[in-house]
Structures are given as structure tokens and as C-alpha cells.
Amino acid sequence: MHESPIPIDSLRRSKGTYEDAIGLPPAVYSDGAWHDFEMEAVFGSEWLCVGRQEQIPDVGDYLAVTRAGEPLIVVRGADGEISAMSAVCQHRGTCITASVDRADDDMLDPPEWVSGNARQFRCPYHYWVYDLDGQLVGAPEMTRTAGFEVGDVRLPKIAVETWRGFVFVNFSSDPPALAPQLAKLDAALENYAVDDLITVDPVVMRDVPFNWKIMIENFMEMYHNSRLHHGIHDFAPSSGAWYADHEAGDAAMFGFNATVEPDGGFNPTFKALFPPLPNLTMEDRQRIVFAFVPPTLLMGFQPDSAFWFAVDPTGPTSHDLSMAYIFPASTVDLPDFGETLEAAIDGVANFNRQDMPTNVATQFGMQSRFAPRGRYSWQEGVLAQFNSWLVDRYEAASD
User: Fold this and answer.
1) Is 1 within the bounds of a domain?
2) Which of 71, 108, 127, 274: disulfide with 87, CB 3.0–4.6 Å?
């Protein structure tokens, strides 16, 4: 357990609904001691999204990622199953997946993470070799070291679970299963066949200059849609927003934004650019679904596709952000898919050009002595849900 740097009684004022909750204390968006506490209280025991299963379809395919400062390897093993392990060599602590071929001018930057296919993982420092299960299988010149046995050494295993094609890891030794906690979201996404959708390669933005919670809040609340995005978001106005109830034990928050016409889209035409997803009802085709599996996975479902963001804090006022679309295989196989995808990405860029500087401005304001703990509109009721989820974990870590 760890003592909260902010009094728990003060944090509890942020729990509840939009009718009675107030914003989190401004310090949670920038204070270094708070960030350290939060990394353990939230990211140390929750399910963290690391990617999609179709990114590693074959034996030996792997993703080398970092979550909450921990370098990880997520790999398709010889048995065909996905597993996760630490990427830290158990000899001298070198990150196995770090590039050793680096230019002088980026020598002090964080390691560059890679993906690919491998039969083994070899530490670049002293050539200790691990198999796909993380077992040490080779260690040069260790025969004179009394009591050393190759079979006694392995990369630490990390709990892993797959839900709807998304791969999650958890640093707890025996965490509760994630899927049963997502029953409400499963029901809402029943017609989207999320398991079968295929991701394009994610784009990663490094050290986005605002706190990770600001990113979550901006993605999930629909109050700003008709204000900040006036004009380009008119096809799905804030007046059409509503959020599903959230209770303790639910591992997701989600809501819906009705569109003025069926098959709306986040692009200058305001219409879907791809064929509608095969199993959607007309009700599905006249709304957008925004969903969050805290603390890392954000998802948006529109009539022709979906998109997902993975958020990973890199400091009190920064985070890495991975972004990608997912589509049915039939859409990916279309002859003009690449060209149309570029148009879709360009359309989303119009929203990013408004969201990003506004979020930077929010980060700047939250560090002011005059920063508020404001009240919420019904169109941002999900923020009170998020606060309640967070404060429950802050309390548990402080007990």
C-alpha cells in the first residue's frame, strides 16, 4: 500500500454522477509524486491494452511495447497461443528488444521498440538467448559460475488476456479475468463483430504533451463536440449524446452519439467512406459508439469501421498515443482501400487539429493556482464515471 499524496476525502468529492461530482484536484494532472502513486495504484494492477491479435498471427510473431514504463514482449508461441513477458534480460537488466544500432545524436533517447518474427530473443549485450516462452536457453561462458543453471532462468511472465481481438496485459500475479467485467459493453457491440475486424498498422505519437487523463476525458465526453468541433461535428451533435450506466465491477464506460442521418462519418463529406459493417441495424447505423476500457483502451465505432487508441503515460504531463483503424476483411480487400483510408485519416486529422492544442491548453491551465474543480454537464456524465473508477483505485491503494 502507498499513501496518497492528495487526501482521500478531497478525492472522494469527484465521485458520483454529473449532478453532484466535481472535477479531480488539478494536481492529479501534473504533480510528480502523484504520477508515481497513480502508476502503481492504477497501472500496476489493471488490464492494459498492448495491441490486436491479428498483429501477431503466426508462431514467432511478436510486439515489443512498453506499458507504464515496463518493456514487454507479446508473442505468439510455439503452441499458437499469445503470451507476454518482461523484455528485461535477467543477467544485467538490458532491454532485449532495444536497438543497438543507434546514431550518436539519438544515443540518449529511449530505446526504439520493434516488432517482427523470431525463433528466439537474444540480449544484444552479452548474447543471453531466450526461447519464445521466455526460458533461457543459452548463456555464453557461464560454466565456471558455481550453481548457475540455464534452466533456472526465465523472463518474468506477465498475465495476458484477449478480448474481442484486443490483447491486454496485467502486472498482478493473479488478476481477475477481464472479459466477465465487460458484459455490458459486449452487449452494446454485439452487431459489430469486433473479433473479426482487422487493424491497420498503428501510428504512434510519442510524448504527447499533456496528462493521459486529459486524453481520456477529451475522447469520451461529448459536450465539446458541438462547440470546439462546430461545423465538422454537426452530423453528430452533442444533443444526441447519452451514456450507459456504470457500476462498480464494470470494466468499461461507453456512450452513444446519435447522428442526424444514417451512415455518418468523421470526414469533410460527413458520410461513411466504406461499406457499412455487415450486421448493423438501422439504429446502429445512425449513431457513433464511444467506449473506454480503463486505463488504456479507447474505441470509437461508426457505421463503416472502428478506430482504437492506446494511451500509455510517460510522465506527469505526457503520454504515448497509438492510433489505428479496424475494418472487416471484405473492406480491406477493396481495390481502392488504401486511397480511401488516406481520405479517412485526413478527415480525422481535422478533429485532431482542434483537439490537440485545446488539450495542451487544458494541461497549461491545470497547472495554474486558479485551476478549478468544476461541475459537469449531462453531456460529459462519463467524466464523473471515470472519476469514480479512478478514486476507487486510489482508495484501494491507500488502504
Assistant:
1) no
2) 71
